[in-house]
Specification:
Layout: H1 7-10, E1 15-19, H2 37-49, H3 53-64, H4 72-87, E2 91-99, E3 103-115, E4 119-120, E5 123-125, E6 136-142, H5 148-154, E7 162-164, H6 184-191, H7 201-224, E8 228-232, E9 258-261, H8 263-274, E10 280-290, E11 295-303, E12 311-315
Length: 323
Amino acid sequence: MLKLFKPAAVAAAVVIFTVYTPADHTATAQTVEEVDLNVVTRIRQEGLHRSQVMDTLWHLTDVIGSRLTGSPGMDEANAWTRDKLSDWGLSNARLEPFHFGKGWSFDRVSLHMESPRKEPLIAYPRAWTPATDGLVQGEVMRITLADDDDLEEHRGKLAGKILMMEAPRVIAEGDAPMVHRHDDDTLENLINFPIPSDATPPLAGARARTHHFREKLNAYLQDEGVAATLYISSRDYGIVRLGAGAAQDADANPGVPSLQMAAEHYNMLARLLDDDRPVEVSLEVVARFHEDDLNAYNTIAEIPGRCAPGFLARRHRRHGQCG
């Protein structure tokens, strides 16, 4: 069976190999390992003529699908890659846990404009936000809730509303090729990526402030009885780039149902509101949290060799909530 994929996607299925050298086996600068060219040739033959990259990628993307960390899809991908590494002859294939938080997945989403006319809209739920209680319909309202003053200004005025939380943005014109093929010069530029000379602690501080305000905002939206929130995708041409609407921590406030919309449809709603035309939409989200196991897992296996205890193979499977 022939399966064709974009080259950029192939990297998602590549196995990353890293040398594992415990403290008592650390190689010295003087150590020179003999290279077995026959083994190198066999590895090249496997990669060039018997590669399973595309079949592996196909199974992860088409059979298993979305693999958000902590989701059932991720659990299935973990188990499948562990078994696949064992089938390929690697030893001690296993899942190693790390603390993550609650999982989340969704089964169904719909968003429709009900007035001034009826039209389906493109949107997907933001991760770690709750489901709706069946079908919800409400008036759309543009709003800015960026700080405590904004919260106080709108207190008591938002019950049942569906809030557009961001400003519309200009859609990029298609004046350049959407696909770029690298040549030797551009590949060389990628290799020479400049590494910052010092750390940037302000970034960590900004993230902490954002996280703190999001918790406050989510609680505020619940208390005010907001029906749902809408956000604009950062991509164009109907592509919805997704993120999280709440933290995965076990005690994090999930807020209210929240959708990321295609930019073109989001902008259309904004234009209607700017023309003082009332807009109503209906939406339904079927989603759930997974809290039985607050760990996530890395799939690890060892390639037997002369270097004790061997090499480690780590398979990357993480993906967003929409496959």
